[in-house]
Amino acid sequence: MNPETAIEGRGVRLRPFRLADVADVAAACVDPLIQQFIGGLPNPYTEADARWWVTEGAPAAFAAGGAAYAIADPATDRLLGAAGLGNPVPQRGQAEIGYWVAPWARGRGVATAATRALAGHAFVTGTARLELLTSVENTVSQRVALAAGFRPEGVRRAASPVRGGGRRDLTVWVRLADDPPGPAPRPLPDLPDGRLTDGVVVLRAVGPSDTDEMHRLHTGVEVVASRVPPEPPTREAMDRYCQGAQHQWLIGRTASMIILDATSGTVAGNCVLALDQPANQGMLGYSLFPHCRGRGYASRTVRLLARWGFEHVGLARMWAGTLPENVASQRVLERAGFRREGLLRGRLPGGAGARADSTMFGLLPGELTD
């Protein structure tokens, strides 16, 4: 790429870095979010670091076959962020695309516009495949990837060092030269207005701050008895689950939600809709704290999830399984319109190496009861 060529995007201009950008680069790169997700940045980040980047680091990226552009406001030319290409593999026609956005420019679609513009220019100039890597918990960047036409391709385990020690997984998003510019399709859409509610219960997405309540719920004796296998999770495992729950939603695998009492806002439990894309069906599951049972929360949760699955996700079928002795859950499903479809012998891993049967229930569009 020609480092002197500006790239025009929707509401952004990608241009070479200039000495006039040094103060803004330094101010942006001390931001906690940028420091968190770009582990190779100096900390603390100083104007001397910014000057090195403008005069040496960015030009070196072009010299190595990549790119490092300033994202600028077309009207004022003020720095809004940075976008670039790294780790080029010429024989494969491949490179990695990355970006950061300054705190004063967020919420304006800057990252998406810059990523689309740079990707389009890369494809025109001969790149065949672009990878975009994000940490599992960086769902903001994952949404940018989707909006810019990138599709999920997997996870690279322990692919990135963490500041202070250790390593973390990176999610892989890919766009090919003949892919549309976005947004990429999402099998599991966001909840309308960020939640589902019937006025009595509220369902909203699980997030990193839910670790304590989720661990307390899923280590309860009665909930453990219904888990597969029937073993309590460690707090570390539950933290990983909550950190990655929104990523699982974005890639169309599982929508995991917290069940809240609509009046008090207290956590009543957890529910999931796990998607089987090839069959266009979803598996529904839920768990409640013991003190929240007998209040109709489970029935309301099942109906809200099923309605969302049919009307917003577009599922052709929903199903759920229970242990044969879990009569209470079977009644909840039947009241919502699920029909008993059979018994799968030894389907589930039980305790101490044993196997457990599973009673299967199914629901088709039009069968959900009020």
UniProtKB/TrEMBL annotation:
Species assigned in the record: Micromonospora sonchi
One GO term describing the cellular component: cytoplasm
UniProt-listed InterPro entries: Acyl_CoA_acyltransferase, GNAT_dom, Ribosomal_N-acetyltransferase
Protein name: N-acetyltransferase domain-containing protein
Lineage: Bacteria, Bacillati, Actinomycetota, Actinomycetes, Micromonosporales
Gene Ontology MF, one: protein N-terminal-serine acetyltransferase activity
Pfam families associated with the record: Acetyltransf_3 (PF13302)
PROSITE patterns reported in the protein's UniProt record: GNAT
Domain of life: Bacteria
Domain N-acetyltransferase stretches: 12-179, 201-365
UniProt cross-references to SUPFAM superfamilies, sorted A to Z: Acyl-CoA N-acyltransferases (Nat)
